[in-house]
Write a structure and sequence with these properties.
single chain, mainly alpha, 62% helix
Length: 155
């Protein structure tokens, strides 16, 4: 388990927590696991004070697929309304995912609701991280022509 995947586990647990607010126990049960001893959950277990949700591997694979799609599509996205465009692209695929199909959801209403939540929250997190990375990459380092005097730094 890498640090990147541990972060994905942590965010996945947060999304499962948001799904638990829908008050459907079947949806939460489908997205969580009881195997907390898996090395994949080391970071989550170290942060746990009995309130965190442990996402299962299938749900983490789904989130990892979204990350892979985002990394490939990030350079080809329009400059405006990026979040809405990504939501329109990702939501239909999430709605059809067998990971999100709840047996209690009539006409897959629970899957649609969960897919919209993932498309909103998770893609927003990906966009924030991506824009920070691009901003850091484009920031030009400040170069001095000569060594500055100390008295200017005291101001």
């Amino acid at each position: 388990p890498s640090v990147t995947y541990s972060g994905l586990v942590y965010v996945g647990g947060y999304i499962v927590k948001l799904v638990s607010e829908f008050e459907c126990d079947a949806c939460v049960t489908m997205l969580t696991t009881t195997n907390k001893a898996d090395p994949l959950y080391v970071l989550l277990h170290s942060q746990d004070k009995s309130a965190l949700h442990y996402p299962n591997r299938m749900f983490l694979t789904l989130l990892d697929n979204i990350v892979t799609f985002f990394e490939k599509a990030a350079s080809k996205l329009p400059r405006t309304k990026v979040h809405e465009v990504l939501q329109l692209l990702v939501t239909p695929h999430l709605e059809q995912s067998p990971v999100l199909l709840c047996p209690e959801g009539v006409d897959s209403s629970h899957a649609r609701r969960t897919a919209r939540l993932i498309a909103d929250k998770f893609i927003r997190l990906l966009l924030v991280n991506y824009t920070k990375m691009v901003s850091d990459r484009n920031e030009k380092p400040f170069a001095y022509v000569h060594k500055p005097s100390r008295k200017y730094f005291k101001l």
